[in-house]
Specification:
hydroxymethylpyrimidine kinase; alpha/beta; Ribokinase-like; kinase; kinase activity; globular; UDP-N-acetylmuramoyl-L-alanine:D-glutamate ligase; 3-stranded antiparallel β-sheet
Length: 281
């Protein structure tokens, strides 16, 4: 086979992943983190931006929303041309954008959908109004193969107290199943006192426990964005959900493990998406 034929064969099977999220000017989270994670795990990333943020490793100083009409225009542009297999959905700033994204997802019917419900700041403040949270639950969750809330987000979705340990995580499993997604990855990263970082993959008839040693680093910015994007990337490559989640969990653990190789900013720096390039041969 000639090099040209090889190139054509590879291009025909390129797993294309769309990320729908906000932009992080600091490059650590949001669209920027998504593109890095998708690329590092073997996918081709395209994007639809839902909001612009003035942001760095120390926090967010401003948010500039994108109109729902322009979000739809971006969605039509990428879906009409690219063979998008999987979609990762992150920050959606208001009801109109949530409804627009849901409408276009139903129109174009991509194979796999991962929803990371970005709802709560590091300080515990809600990013979405109650009406937007209800739209997220009614319009997008039923379309999702998996949603990936952390503990504060799960608590906000269910209007319950934030779980403080793994046993309390188990008590909300049945409630999370009722949110309408095919599965839920409940992330336990906020349980800082645990020596392990344990997530629960909640399926319709099973709960799988995914636990790895907790990595001690302050460079954790973009962890959730990167994990959900990696799941979408592995789904686009043909992995079944449970395998895609396990591969993504391994990827983000390594990205955290190598995060201190980099010195980015004065606050919570990003994870090291391309850690394999920093390994010693």
């Amino acid at each position: 086979m000639t090099s040209l034929n090889i190139a054509k064969t590879l291009s025909s099977v390129t797993p294309i992943v769309l990320t729908i999220a906000g932009s992080d000017s600091g490059g650590g989270a949001g669209i920027q983190a998504d593109i890095k994670a998708i690329s590092a795990t073997g996918g081709y990333a395209c994007s639809v931006i839902t909001a612009l943020t003035a942001q760095n490793t120390q926090g967010v100083s401003g948010i500039y929303p994108i109109s729902s009409e322009f979000v739809e225009q971006q969605l039509d542009a990428v879906f009409s041309d690219l063979n998008i297999v999987a979609v990762k959905i992150g920050m959606l700033s208001d009801v109109d954008i949530i409804n627009s994204v849901a409408k276009k997802i139903r129109q174009y019917s991509p194979q796999s959908i991962v929803v990371d419900p970005v709802m709560v700041t590091r300080n515990g403040d809600l990013l979405l109004q109650a009406s937007a949270i209800e739209s997220l639950k009614s319009q997008l969750f039923p379309l999702a193969d998996v949603i990936t809330p952390n503990l504060p987000e799960a608590a906000a979705l269910l209007n319950v107290a934030i779980p403080q340990n793994e046993a309390q995580m188990m008590t909300i499993v049945d409630q999370l199943r009722l949110l309408g997604a095919k599965s839920v990855l409940l992330k336990g990263g906020f349980l800082k006192e645990d020596i392990n970082s344990t997530d629960l993959l909640i399926l319709s008839d099973d709960v799988q426990r995914l636990s790895t040693p907790r990595i001690k680093t302050r460079n954790t910015h973009g962890t959730g964005c990167s994990l959900s994007s990696a799941i979408a990337s592995y789904l686009a490559q043909g992995h079944q959900l449970t395998d895609a989640v396990r591969l993504a969990k391994h990827y983000i653990t390594q990205a955290l493990n190598y995060a201190d190789v980099m010195t980015i900013g004065q606050g919570h720096g990003p994870v090291n998406h391309f850690f394999s390039l920093n390994r010693e041969n």
